[in-house]
Write a structure and sequence with these properties.
Strand order of the largest sheet: 2-3-4-1-5
Structural class: alpha/beta
Largest sheet: 5 strands, parallel
Distance between the termini: 82 Å
Order of helices and strands: HHEHEHEHEHHEHEHHEHHHHHHHH
Number of strands: 7
Shape: globular
Strand content: 5-15%
CATH superfamily of the largest domain: P-loop containing nucleotide triphosphate hydrolases
Helix content: 40-55%
Length: 400
């Protein structure tokens, strides 16, 4: 018997749940289909958010020749076959799962055909393509993020699924519970619903007690107002910023239990530079090393490098001076407070003073535009590292 998730596979973009930023009136993917013109692009997002469904709906609506390959499973011969089929058809849409795992040989094989339009690539990945995709591929495609599904989105999809399950009895509360324990993964929610349905007695009644007996995952990550996900991330950052190591580890554990590694990585990277910054400049590379180690070993071992670096982040001295400084500079730019680059530091200048020709590799000259002369964006905070570099800076400036 066909799996429920397969029978629910959308055949049109309008059947996709969520992703209103890409699909709907005057949205980019819908307009591409309406104009009967498709370009190479990559969809990235968490499992179960609809990447494969979107790709299938697009090729179904366009009714163009297409093939589906997996960058890990399919070998070079499979890629050769697709290219030959594309040459015969004049064009081929290639849907490629796990595109972040595409090796160099396969990339070199595909690149010229993507460039000349013979192959139109739709890449699918759960990894951030700005980190994981080879720049040669990335420069030839558009990149669209597929957003996490809300509980409301998933409940809507579950109600559609119930139309395919004969005589199922399930109330709104039970549907919402399934949505909550799915943590934004619609495929997981559908699988839970289907298992529950076939685990019922003759009355086909699915309730929360039955769901809990099948899936005992605790519900703590999302709340009824859809703020839970962001509240946990907010609490995670604020606990580290507030130097509460125990609370930091608590919220890290909640995010880990939900399997939300991407959100952890992004938030850690922001905290390292926004909240710790120049008080401990070594923390940025340490965070990246911990993320790399976590990616390398995967869960459950990923908790070890992540727990270690989060402990150090919480215990580290804090400074947001650099964060405040760049925002102050951006505010000037956005408000039109810019001015002309001083003549002596323009490319063609003959009056520029080369600092390395002077004592201590420093010489006084004005770098800011005339109307911003004397402007101070950076204000040092009271920590050991900034005190040292600020002291050196003031000594260099001397009387200026």
């Amino acid at each position: 018997m066909e799996l429920l998730s397969n029978s629910l596979r959308p055949t049109k973009l309008e059947d996709i749940i969520g992703q209103e930023h890409l699909i709907g009136p005057n949205k980019v993917l819908s307009n591409m289909v309406r104009n009967n013109k498709i370009f190479s692009f990559i969809l990235y997002g968490k499992p179960g958010t609809g990447k494969t469904s979107i790709a299938n709906a697009i090729v179904n609506e366009l009714n163009r020749p297409h093939r589906f390959l997996n960058a890990t499973i399919n070998n070079k011969k499979d890629f050769d076959i697709v290219i030959e089929e594309a040459k015969m058809a004049g064009e081929m849409i290639l849907i490629m799962d796990e595109i972040h795992r595409l090796n160099k040989d396969k990339q070199d094989l595909l690149l010229p055909y993507i460039e000349n339009g013979l192959i139109i690539l739709i890449g699918l990945t759960t990894s951030n393509p700005y980190h994981k995709i080879n720049p040669a591929i990335r420069s030839r495609v558009q990149i669209f993020e597929v957003h996490d599904l809300t509980s409301k989105d998933i409940v809507k999809g579950l109600k559609k699924a119930c139309e395919h399950l004969e005589d199922i009895q399930i109330d709104q509360e039970s549907l919402e519970y399934i949505a909550q324990i799915s943590s934004g993964d619609f495929r997981s929610a559908i699988n839970t619903l289907e298992v529950c349905y076939y685990s019922t007695s003759e009355d086909k009644k699915v309730d929360i007690n039955l769901i809990k007996s099948i899936n005992s995952k605790p519900v703590f990550f999302h709340d009824k107002n859809e703020d839970g996900h962001y509240d946990v991330l907010s609490a995670f950052q604020k606990s580290i910023r507030g130097s509460d190591v125990d609370a930091s580890l608590h919220y890290l554990a909640r995010l880990l239990e939900a399997g939300d590694l991407d959100s952890i990585y992004r938030r850690m990277s922001v905290i390292a530079y926004e909240d710790i910054g120049l008080a401990n400049p070594s923390i940025g590379p340490k965070v990246m090393a911990a993320i790399h180690a976590a990616e390398l070993v995967g869960l459950p071992e990923a908790v070890i490098p992540l727990g270690t670096v989060i402990t150090e982040m919480a215990l580290s001295p804090k400074s947001n001076s650099a964060y405040l400084a760049i925002n102050a500079a951006l505010n000037d730019i956005r408000s039109g407070n810019t001015g002309n680059v001083p003549n002596h530091i323009k490319t063609s200048s003959t009056t520029y003073k080369y600092p390395h020709d002077y004592k201590n590799d420093w010489v006084f000259q004005e770098y800011l535009p005339e109307n911003l002369k004397g402007k101070k964006y950076y204000q040092a905070k009271n920590n050991k590292y900034e005190a040292n570099i600020n002291k050196l800076y003031n000594e260099m400036k001397g009387g200026h």
